[in-house]
Amino acid sequence: MKECIKIKTLLSRYLDKETAEAETILVESHLNSCPLCKKELLELSRIKELVSGKERINLPENYLINRLREKIARKRQEPAEKRPSLIDLGNLSRRLIPIPVATFVLSILFLFSISTGQKASETTLEDNLLSGNPVSTEAALEVILGVED
Known about the structure:
73% helix; 0% strand; 7 helices; mainly alpha; elongated; 149 residues
């Protein structure tokens, strides 16, 4: 497996006949025993044939720079309302921003309701116990189980 990794790094150079003699011997001996690397070499050679069969087109000097300048100029001429802004991200903002906001609000409401309910129940039981008033088992269970009147 380690040898396959090394051979795969040499395949492109081997195909272009740019490997040293020792590397060429190493690649050829490995290809005779490894069908996966041999398949990879065949795929690389097909790609090379496809690419070399295509006619190379020479672009004018500064072609890409000029296209970029034209695109920037067109963007500057667009009305401001058509340009996307950080505030208006389209469907993405309308769909994704409310989810965390709603989750946060509901979490806060849930935590507030739990903490308020527990404090009231604990305070009632605590007050009854500290005041010396008798607390029935039923009342204690209601407080423990959270049953409200």
